[in-house]
Amino acid sequence: MTDLAPSSPKRTYDALLQDVEEGLRSGRFKTGDQLPGERILAEKYGISRASVREAMRILDVVGVIRSPSGAGPKSGAVFVSEPSAGLSSTLRLHIASNRLAVKDIVETRILLETWAAQAAVQHDNPQGIQRARELLMGMDAPDIDYETFHTLDAQFHLALSALAGNTVIDTVMDSLSGSVRGYIKEALVSLGQWPVVLAELRAHHHAIFAAVEDKNGGLAADLLRKHIGWLYDQTTNAHSLGASGGEG
Ligand SMILES: [Zn+2]
Questions:
Q1: Tens of pLDDT along 9-60?
Q2: Which of 37, 114, 205, 231 is the most buried (most CB within 10 A)?
Q3: Are 70 and 157 in a shared domain?
């Protein structure tokens, strides 16, 4: 029973994937460990080297291993822990194929960020607050371009959510913001009113940060909800997605 290796149809490399999953769970494998080379794995699991490569590609895509660059047959892949990388690219592809609506991603973001803002009140994390403050200051740079701003903006939201101290939320948040990054950037560029939007976003961020710093979780949550909703309305207008958008 594993997500990576569904029971049917049975694939030749399922045993390898199951063993990796079991090994990670039990602590037999951990981040930084190197997997044996292709030939050894093929022998161990009684499968072809092509099957080993296929399994390695799956583990690479989901962010569990990183294959060495210029991989010779002897050099093994290394275990990494990049859950958000795998989730993010999966979400992005499903958004691209219209299986996941941006609106739904945005609603999920609002749900998680407002929850995190309220949960953060119970934690003291001066380093986390400082990290958010630095990002806030970074976004105040006078001649900032939208691309830099947008990168810092995403990091700012992640830094705020991280104050809740829930790594699952952090991972999902990272994936969600990664999955709609291209969409938002495109919209901000096409808005053509960047200075106006910039001033508005800065004001939102300062108010949100002040509420978080004051440990006013209710206010921070409320401001986050408005901020994310406002940005979505702007991007919806820019994309002219009347059918799937709000009132705008
Ligand atoms: Zn923001």
A1: 678 899 999 999 999 889 999 999 999 989 999 999 999 999 999 999 989 8
A2: 205
A3: no
